[in-house]
Design goal:
Distance between the termini of chain A: 27 Å
Structural class of chain A: mainly alpha
Number of helices of chain A: 6
CATH topology of chain A: Methane Monooxygenase Hydroxylase, Chain G, domain 1
Largest sheet of chain A: none
Radius of gyration of chain A: 20 Å
CATH class of chain A: Mainly Alpha
Helix content of chain A: over 70%
Mean pLDDT of chain A: 91
Order of helices and strands of chain A: HHHHHH
Oligomer: homodimer
Low-confidence stretches of chain A: 219-225
Chain lengths: ~220, ~220
Protein backbone atom coordinates (compact mmCIF):
# COMPACT_ATOMS: atom_id res chain seq x y z
CA UNK A 1 0.00 0.00 0.00
CA UNK A 2 1.46 3.37 -0.95
CA UNK A 3 1.99 5.86 1.81
CA UNK A 4 -0.92 8.25 1.16
CA UNK A 5 0.65 10.98 3.29
CA UNK A 6 3.79 11.05 1.12
CA UNK A 7 1.74 10.83 -2.09
CA UNK A 8 -0.34 13.81 -0.94
CA UNK A 9 2.79 15.80 -0.07
CA UNK A 10 4.26 15.05 -3.47
CA UNK A 11 1.08 16.12 -5.27
CA UNK A 12 1.05 19.28 -3.18
CA UNK A 13 4.64 20.01 -4.25
CA UNK A 14 3.84 19.50 -7.95
CA UNK A 15 0.87 21.85 -7.54
CA UNK A 16 3.18 24.39 -5.88
CA UNK A 17 5.65 24.20 -8.78
CA UNK A 18 2.88 24.83 -11.31
CA UNK A 19 1.44 27.70 -9.27
CA UNK A 20 4.82 29.38 -8.89
CA UNK A 21 5.53 29.06 -12.64
CA UNK A 22 2.17 30.73 -13.33
CA UNK A 23 2.96 33.46 -10.79
CA UNK A 24 6.35 34.08 -12.42
CA UNK A 25 4.60 34.21 -15.81
CA UNK A 26 2.13 36.78 -14.47
CA UNK A 27 4.91 39.05 -13.21
CA UNK A 28 6.78 38.77 -16.51
CA UNK A 29 3.60 39.58 -18.49
CA UNK A 30 2.96 42.72 -16.44
CA UNK A 31 6.60 43.76 -16.96
CA UNK A 32 6.05 43.59 -20.75
CA UNK A 33 2.76 45.52 -20.52
CA UNK A 34 4.39 48.20 -18.36
CA UNK A 35 7.42 48.45 -20.64
CA UNK A 36 5.19 49.21 -23.64
CA UNK A 37 3.21 51.68 -21.52
CA UNK A 38 6.48 53.41 -20.55
CA UNK A 39 7.25 53.71 -24.27
CA UNK A 40 3.87 54.82 -25.65
CA UNK A 41 3.08 57.20 -22.74
CA UNK A 42 6.71 58.41 -22.58
CA UNK A 43 6.80 57.50 -18.89
CA UNK A 44 10.50 57.15 -17.99
CA UNK A 45 9.94 56.78 -14.21
CA UNK A 46 7.78 53.72 -14.99
CA UNK A 47 10.59 52.37 -17.20
CA UNK A 48 13.03 52.78 -14.30
CA UNK A 49 10.61 50.94 -12.00
CA UNK A 50 10.51 47.99 -14.43
CA UNK A 51 14.32 47.84 -14.51
CA UNK A 52 14.43 47.82 -10.70
CA UNK A 53 11.72 45.17 -10.43
CA UNK A 54 13.70 42.65 -12.50
CA UNK A 55 15.37 41.21 -9.37
CA UNK A 56 11.95 39.92 -8.20
CA UNK A 57 11.83 37.73 -11.32
CA UNK A 58 15.38 36.47 -10.79
CA UNK A 59 14.61 35.68 -7.15
CA UNK A 60 11.46 33.74 -7.99
CA UNK A 61 13.32 31.82 -10.72
CA UNK A 62 15.95 30.66 -8.19
CA UNK A 63 13.19 29.78 -5.70
CA UNK A 64 11.37 27.58 -8.24
CA UNK A 65 14.64 26.00 -9.38
CA UNK A 66 15.51 25.10 -5.79
CA UNK A 67 12.02 23.70 -5.18
CA UNK A 68 12.32 21.51 -8.30
CA UNK A 69 15.73 20.22 -7.19
CA UNK A 70 14.35 19.46 -3.73
CA UNK A 71 11.43 17.49 -5.19
CA UNK A 72 13.76 15.62 -7.58
CA UNK A 73 16.10 14.72 -4.73
CA UNK A 74 13.54 13.76 -2.12
CA UNK A 75 10.65 12.25 -4.14
CA UNK A 76 12.59 10.62 -6.98
CA UNK A 77 9.73 11.05 -9.44
CA UNK A 78 9.51 9.01 -12.63
CA UNK A 79 7.85 9.22 -16.04
CA UNK A 80 5.52 12.17 -16.59
CA UNK A 81 6.12 13.75 -13.16
CA UNK A 82 9.85 13.78 -13.81
CA UNK A 83 9.37 15.36 -17.20
CA UNK A 84 6.98 17.94 -15.74
CA UNK A 85 9.63 19.06 -13.25
CA UNK A 86 12.54 19.20 -15.71
CA UNK A 87 10.30 21.09 -18.16
CA UNK A 88 9.39 23.58 -15.42
CA UNK A 89 13.11 24.13 -14.79
CA UNK A 90 13.61 24.98 -18.47
CA UNK A 91 10.50 27.14 -18.73
CA UNK A 92 11.56 29.41 -15.87
CA UNK A 93 14.85 30.08 -17.66
CA UNK A 94 12.83 31.31 -20.65
CA UNK A 95 10.60 33.42 -18.40
CA UNK A 96 13.60 35.01 -16.73
CA UNK A 97 14.95 35.96 -20.17
CA UNK A 98 11.59 37.43 -21.18
CA UNK A 99 11.99 39.57 -18.07
CA UNK A 100 15.37 40.69 -19.46
CA UNK A 101 13.67 41.68 -22.74
CA UNK A 102 11.19 43.84 -20.77
CA UNK A 103 14.24 45.53 -19.21
CA UNK A 104 15.76 46.02 -22.69
CA UNK A 105 12.52 47.62 -23.92
CA UNK A 106 12.49 49.90 -20.86
CA UNK A 107 16.09 51.00 -21.48
CA UNK A 108 15.33 51.91 -25.10
CA UNK A 109 12.12 53.67 -23.92
CA UNK A 110 14.15 55.87 -21.54
CA UNK A 111 16.48 56.79 -24.42
CA UNK A 112 13.63 57.49 -26.84
CA UNK A 113 11.73 59.55 -24.25
CA UNK A 114 14.66 61.98 -24.16
CA UNK A 115 14.21 62.77 -27.89
CA UNK A 116 11.28 64.18 -29.89
CA UNK A 117 8.66 61.54 -30.73
CA UNK A 118 9.25 59.78 -34.03
CA UNK A 119 5.72 58.71 -34.87
CA UNK A 120 2.70 57.20 -33.15
CA UNK A 121 3.25 53.62 -32.04
CA UNK A 122 0.54 51.43 -33.52
CA UNK A 123 2.13 48.08 -34.37
CA UNK A 124 4.41 47.76 -31.33
CA UNK A 125 1.52 47.64 -28.80
CA UNK A 126 -0.20 45.06 -31.03
CA UNK A 127 3.00 43.00 -31.08
CA UNK A 128 3.35 43.31 -27.31
CA UNK A 129 -0.24 42.23 -26.77
CA UNK A 130 0.17 39.24 -29.10
CA UNK A 131 3.41 38.10 -27.47
CA UNK A 132 1.91 38.47 -23.97
CA UNK A 133 -1.06 36.35 -25.05
CA UNK A 134 1.32 33.74 -26.50
CA UNK A 135 3.22 33.65 -23.22
CA UNK A 136 0.03 33.20 -21.20
CA UNK A 137 -1.19 30.48 -23.58
CA UNK A 138 2.10 28.59 -23.44
CA UNK A 139 1.99 28.52 -19.62
CA UNK A 140 -1.66 27.40 -19.61
CA UNK A 141 -0.62 24.66 -22.02
CA UNK A 142 2.16 23.66 -19.61
CA UNK A 143 -0.07 23.51 -16.53
CA UNK A 144 -2.74 21.48 -18.34
CA UNK A 145 -0.38 19.45 -20.56
CA UNK A 146 -2.44 20.80 -23.47
CA UNK A 147 -0.69 19.93 -26.75
CA UNK A 148 -3.48 21.44 -28.86
CA UNK A 149 -3.11 24.84 -27.18
CA UNK A 150 0.69 24.59 -27.40
CA UNK A 151 0.45 23.90 -31.15
CA UNK A 152 -1.75 26.98 -31.54
CA UNK A 153 1.02 29.11 -29.99
CA UNK A 154 3.48 27.94 -32.64
CA UNK A 155 1.09 29.25 -35.33
CA UNK A 156 0.58 32.56 -33.48
CA UNK A 157 4.30 33.23 -33.69
CA UNK A 158 3.93 33.91 -37.43
CA UNK A 159 1.67 36.86 -36.59
CA UNK A 160 4.35 38.40 -34.36
CA UNK A 161 7.10 37.70 -36.91
CA UNK A 162 5.03 39.29 -39.67
CA UNK A 163 4.40 42.41 -37.58
CA UNK A 164 8.14 42.63 -36.96
CA UNK A 165 8.88 42.36 -40.69
CA UNK A 166 6.24 45.03 -41.38
CA UNK A 167 7.72 47.42 -38.79
CA UNK A 168 11.14 46.75 -40.31
CA UNK A 169 9.97 47.74 -43.82
CA UNK A 170 8.16 50.85 -42.58
CA UNK A 171 11.16 52.08 -40.61
CA UNK A 172 13.45 51.41 -43.55
CA UNK A 173 11.35 53.77 -45.69
CA UNK A 174 11.30 56.27 -42.83
CA UNK A 175 15.08 56.26 -42.50
CA UNK A 176 15.68 56.47 -46.24
CA UNK A 177 13.44 59.52 -46.54
CA UNK A 178 14.91 61.32 -43.55
CA UNK A 179 18.34 60.20 -42.31
CA UNK A 180 17.81 62.41 -39.23
CA UNK A 181 15.45 59.73 -37.92
CA UNK A 182 17.90 56.83 -38.25
CA UNK A 183 19.12 56.75 -34.65
CA UNK A 184 15.60 56.83 -33.21
CA UNK A 185 14.19 54.45 -35.81
CA UNK A 186 16.92 51.95 -34.94
CA UNK A 187 15.88 52.00 -31.30
CA UNK A 188 12.26 51.39 -32.26
CA UNK A 189 13.46 48.56 -34.44
CA UNK A 190 15.34 47.04 -31.51
CA UNK A 191 12.17 47.17 -29.42
CA UNK A 192 10.39 45.35 -32.23
CA UNK A 193 13.17 42.73 -32.14
CA UNK A 194 12.84 42.36 -28.36
CA UNK A 195 9.11 41.73 -28.76
CA UNK A 196 9.77 39.22 -31.52
CA UNK A 197 12.20 37.53 -29.15
CA UNK A 198 9.46 37.33 -26.49
CA UNK A 199 7.28 35.57 -29.06
CA UNK A 200 10.21 33.21 -29.65
CA UNK A 201 10.45 32.44 -25.94
CA UNK A 202 6.71 31.68 -25.83
CA UNK A 203 7.25 29.42 -28.84
CA UNK A 204 10.14 27.71 -27.04
CA UNK A 205 7.91 27.11 -24.01
CA UNK A 206 5.14 25.70 -26.25
CA UNK A 207 7.68 23.36 -27.88
CA UNK A 208 8.90 22.22 -24.47
CA UNK A 209 5.27 21.44 -23.52
CA UNK A 210 4.71 19.41 -26.69
CA UNK A 211 7.94 17.54 -26.07
CA UNK A 212 6.94 16.98 -22.43
CA UNK A 213 3.58 15.44 -23.38
CA UNK A 214 4.70 13.59 -26.52
CA UNK A 215 7.69 12.13 -24.70
CA UNK A 216 5.19 10.72 -22.24
CA UNK A 217 3.10 9.32 -25.10
CA UNK A 218 6.14 7.68 -26.68
CA UNK A 219 7.06 6.10 -23.36
CA UNK A 220 3.48 4.87 -22.94
CA UNK A 221 3.62 3.34 -26.40
CA UNK A 222 6.82 1.52 -25.55
CA UNK A 223 5.17 0.14 -22.41
CA UNK A 224 2.14 -1.05 -24.38
CA UNK A 225 4.26 -2.95 -26.86
CA UNK B 1 28.65 -1.82 0.88
CA UNK B 2 27.59 0.08 -2.25
CA UNK B 3 27.11 -1.92 -5.40
CA UNK B 4 30.32 -1.01 -7.28
CA UNK B 5 28.88 -2.19 -10.57
CA UNK B 6 25.96 0.26 -10.34
CA UNK B 7 28.25 3.06 -9.12
CA UNK B 8 30.53 2.49 -12.12
CA UNK B 9 27.59 2.47 -14.52
CA UNK B 10 26.34 5.73 -13.04
CA UNK B 11 29.77 7.37 -13.33
CA UNK B 12 29.96 6.17 -16.92
CA UNK B 13 26.59 7.78 -17.64
CA UNK B 14 27.64 11.11 -16.11
CA UNK B 15 30.80 10.99 -18.24
CA UNK B 16 28.65 10.29 -21.31
CA UNK B 17 26.43 13.29 -20.57
CA UNK B 18 29.47 15.56 -20.28
CA UNK B 19 31.04 14.18 -23.46
CA UNK B 20 27.85 14.59 -25.45
CA UNK B 21 27.42 18.19 -24.24
CA UNK B 22 30.99 18.93 -25.37
CA UNK B 23 30.31 17.26 -28.73
CA UNK B 24 27.15 19.34 -29.19
CA UNK B 25 29.19 22.44 -28.28
CA UNK B 26 31.80 21.52 -30.90
CA UNK B 27 29.20 21.19 -33.65
CA UNK B 28 27.61 24.49 -32.68
CA UNK B 29 31.00 26.24 -32.67
CA UNK B 30 31.81 24.99 -36.16
CA UNK B 31 28.37 26.15 -37.35
CA UNK B 32 29.22 29.68 -36.14
CA UNK B 33 32.67 29.59 -37.77
CA UNK B 34 31.20 28.37 -41.07
CA UNK B 35 28.41 30.97 -40.97
CA UNK B 36 30.95 33.78 -40.71
CA UNK B 37 33.01 32.16 -43.48
CA UNK B 38 29.88 32.00 -45.68
CA UNK B 39 29.47 35.73 -45.06
CA UNK B 40 33.05 36.97 -45.48
CA UNK B 41 33.84 34.69 -48.45
CA UNK B 42 30.39 35.24 -49.97
CA UNK B 43 29.87 31.47 -50.06
CA UNK B 44 26.10 30.92 -50.29
CA UNK B 45 26.29 27.14 -50.86
CA UNK B 46 28.13 26.89 -47.53
CA UNK B 47 25.40 28.98 -45.90
CA UNK B 48 22.77 26.57 -47.27
CA UNK B 49 24.76 23.65 -45.87
CA UNK B 50 24.73 25.22 -42.41
CA UNK B 51 20.97 25.68 -42.56
CA UNK B 52 20.53 22.03 -43.55
CA UNK B 53 22.89 20.79 -40.83
CA UNK B 54 20.82 22.37 -38.05
CA UNK B 55 18.76 19.19 -37.62
CA UNK B 56 21.89 17.36 -36.38
CA UNK B 57 22.03 19.80 -33.46
CA UNK B 58 18.33 19.36 -32.69
CA UNK B 59 18.70 15.58 -32.81
CA UNK B 60 21.67 15.55 -30.44
CA UNK B 61 19.85 17.91 -28.06
CA UNK B 62 16.91 15.48 -27.83
CA UNK B 63 19.32 12.56 -27.39
CA UNK B 64 21.09 14.24 -24.45
CA UNK B 65 17.78 15.30 -22.92
CA UNK B 66 16.52 11.72 -23.06
CA UNK B 67 19.77 10.40 -21.56
CA UNK B 68 19.50 12.89 -18.68
CA UNK B 69 15.88 11.88 -18.03
CA UNK B 70 16.87 8.21 -18.07
CA UNK B 71 19.66 8.79 -15.54
CA UNK B 72 17.36 10.88 -13.32
CA UNK B 73 14.69 8.17 -13.39
CA UNK B 74 16.92 5.12 -12.93
CA UNK B 75 19.79 6.39 -10.73
CA UNK B 76 17.93 8.90 -8.58
CA UNK B 77 21.01 11.08 -8.10
CA UNK B 78 21.28 13.61 -5.28
CA UNK B 79 23.22 16.76 -4.46
CA UNK B 80 25.90 17.77 -6.96
CA UNK B 81 25.19 14.93 -9.43
CA UNK B 82 21.55 15.98 -9.58
CA UNK B 83 22.50 19.58 -10.21
CA UNK B 84 25.02 18.57 -12.88
CA UNK B 85 22.30 16.75 -14.81
CA UNK B 86 19.64 19.48 -14.55
CA UNK B 87 22.29 22.03 -15.54
CA UNK B 88 23.23 19.92 -18.58
CA UNK B 89 19.56 19.87 -19.58
CA UNK B 90 19.46 23.68 -19.49
CA UNK B 91 22.80 24.13 -21.23
CA UNK B 92 21.77 22.06 -24.23
CA UNK B 93 18.72 24.31 -24.70
CA UNK B 94 21.12 27.26 -24.93
CA UNK B 95 23.37 25.39 -27.35
CA UNK B 96 20.44 24.52 -29.57
CA UNK B 97 19.50 28.20 -29.72
CA UNK B 98 23.07 29.17 -30.59
CA UNK B 99 22.65 26.77 -33.49
CA UNK B 100 19.56 28.76 -34.48
CA UNK B 101 21.62 31.97 -34.43
CA UNK B 102 24.15 30.34 -36.81
CA UNK B 103 21.19 29.61 -39.11
CA UNK B 104 20.04 33.24 -38.80
CA UNK B 105 23.53 34.47 -39.74
CA UNK B 106 23.55 32.10 -42.72
CA UNK B 107 20.16 33.36 -43.93
CA UNK B 108 21.33 36.98 -43.79
CA UNK B 109 24.59 35.95 -45.53
CA UNK B 110 22.63 34.44 -48.43
CA UNK B 111 20.67 37.69 -48.77
CA UNK B 112 23.80 39.86 -48.57
CA UNK B 113 25.69 37.69 -51.05
CA UNK B 114 23.05 38.54 -53.66
CA UNK B 115 23.89 42.26 -53.42
CA UNK B 116 27.12 44.21 -54.00
CA UNK B 117 29.50 44.07 -51.03
CA UNK B 118 28.98 46.86 -48.49
CA UNK B 119 32.45 47.02 -46.96
CA UNK B 120 35.13 44.65 -45.70
CA UNK B 121 34.08 42.74 -42.59
CA UNK B 122 36.65 43.32 -39.86
CA UNK B 123 34.78 43.47 -36.56
CA UNK B 124 32.22 40.72 -37.26
CA UNK B 125 34.86 37.94 -37.54
CA UNK B 126 36.45 39.25 -34.33
CA UNK B 127 33.08 39.13 -32.62
CA UNK B 128 32.42 35.63 -33.93
CA UNK B 129 35.81 34.44 -32.70
CA UNK B 130 35.27 35.98 -29.28
CA UNK B 131 31.81 34.50 -28.88
CA UNK B 132 33.03 31.05 -30.01
CA UNK B 133 35.81 31.25 -27.43
CA UNK B 134 33.30 32.23 -24.77
CA UNK B 135 31.13 29.28 -25.69
CA UNK B 136 34.05 26.86 -25.50
CA UNK B 137 35.16 28.33 -22.18
CA UNK B 138 31.70 28.09 -20.68
CA UNK B 139 31.46 24.39 -21.59
CA UNK B 140 34.96 23.70 -20.20
CA UNK B 141 33.82 25.45 -17.02
CA UNK B 142 30.76 23.18 -16.95
CA UNK B 143 32.69 19.95 -17.40
CA UNK B 144 35.27 20.88 -14.75
CA UNK B 145 32.89 22.77 -12.43
CA UNK B 146 35.32 25.67 -12.78
CA UNK B 147 33.76 28.81 -11.25
CA UNK B 148 36.86 30.92 -11.91
CA UNK B 149 36.74 30.20 -15.65
CA UNK B 150 32.97 30.75 -15.67
CA UNK B 151 33.44 34.15 -14.02
CA UNK B 152 36.00 35.08 -16.69
CA UNK B 153 33.36 34.41 -19.38
CA UNK B 154 31.03 36.94 -17.76
CA UNK B 155 33.76 39.58 -18.12
CA UNK B 156 34.49 38.57 -21.75
CA UNK B 157 30.89 39.35 -22.66
CA UNK B 158 31.66 43.07 -22.29
CA UNK B 159 34.15 42.76 -25.15
CA UNK B 160 31.48 41.30 -27.45
CA UNK B 161 28.90 43.87 -26.34
CA UNK B 162 31.37 46.70 -26.98
CA UNK B 163 32.15 45.41 -30.48
CA UNK B 164 28.42 45.25 -31.17
CA UNK B 165 27.99 48.86 -30.00
CA UNK B 166 30.95 49.93 -32.17
CA UNK B 167 29.53 48.19 -35.26
CA UNK B 168 26.20 49.85 -34.51
CA UNK B 169 27.77 53.34 -34.44
CA UNK B 170 29.80 52.74 -37.60
CA UNK B 171 26.81 51.48 -39.56
CA UNK B 172 24.72 54.38 -38.33
CA UNK B 173 27.24 56.81 -39.89
CA UNK B 174 27.33 54.68 -43.01
CA UNK B 175 23.56 54.77 -43.42
CA UNK B 176 23.32 58.51 -42.72
CA UNK B 177 25.92 59.30 -45.37
CA UNK B 178 24.41 57.02 -48.01
CA UNK B 179 20.77 55.96 -47.53
CA UNK B 180 21.28 53.49 -50.43
CA UNK B 181 23.19 51.29 -47.99
CA UNK B 182 20.45 51.17 -45.33
CA UNK B 183 18.93 47.83 -46.29
CA UNK B 184 22.29 46.04 -46.44
CA UNK B 185 23.65 47.80 -43.36
CA UNK B 186 20.60 46.64 -41.41
CA UNK B 187 21.33 43.03 -42.32
CA UNK B 188 24.92 43.40 -41.16
CA UNK B 189 23.60 44.93 -37.97
CA UNK B 190 21.32 41.94 -37.45
CA UNK B 191 24.30 39.60 -37.83
CA UNK B 192 26.10 41.65 -35.21
CA UNK B 193 23.05 41.23 -32.95
CA UNK B 194 23.01 37.45 -33.55
CA UNK B 195 26.66 37.25 -32.52
CA UNK B 196 25.97 39.37 -29.45
CA UNK B 197 23.17 36.92 -28.66
CA UNK B 198 25.63 34.01 -28.92
CA UNK B 199 27.82 35.80 -26.37
CA UNK B 200 24.70 36.12 -24.19
CA UNK B 201 24.06 32.37 -24.44
CA UNK B 202 27.67 31.66 -23.42
CA UNK B 203 27.14 34.05 -20.50
CA UNK B 204 23.94 32.22 -19.59
CA UNK B 205 25.81 28.91 -19.59
CA UNK B 206 28.59 30.40 -17.43
CA UNK B 207 25.96 31.66 -14.97
CA UNK B 208 24.33 28.23 -14.87
CA UNK B 209 27.75 26.73 -14.06
CA UNK B 210 28.36 29.21 -11.23
CA UNK B 211 24.91 28.50 -9.87
CA UNK B 212 25.53 24.75 -10.19
CA UNK B 213 28.77 24.91 -8.19
CA UNK B 214 27.73 27.58 -5.69
CA UNK B 215 24.47 25.77 -5.03
CA UNK B 216 26.60 22.80 -4.09
CA UNK B 217 28.75 24.98 -1.87
CA UNK B 218 25.68 26.40 -0.15
CA UNK B 219 24.36 22.90 0.43
CA UNK B 220 27.73 21.83 1.81
CA UNK B 221 27.71 24.79 4.16
CA UNK B 222 24.26 23.81 5.40
CA UNK B 223 25.57 20.29 6.08
CA UNK B 224 28.57 21.64 7.98
CA UNK B 225 26.46 23.77 10.27
Amino acid sequence: MPNTHIVKQFEEELKQIKEKVIRLGGIVESQIADAIKALTERDSPLAEKIIQRDHVINGLEVEIDELCLKVLATRQPAASDLRLITTAMKIITDLERVGDEAVNISERAVELNREPPLKAFIDLPRMAEASQKMLKGSLDAFVNGDVKLASKILADDDFVDNLNAQIFRELLTFMSEDPQTISRAMKVLFISKYLERIGDHATNIAELVIFMVKGKVIRHMALDE
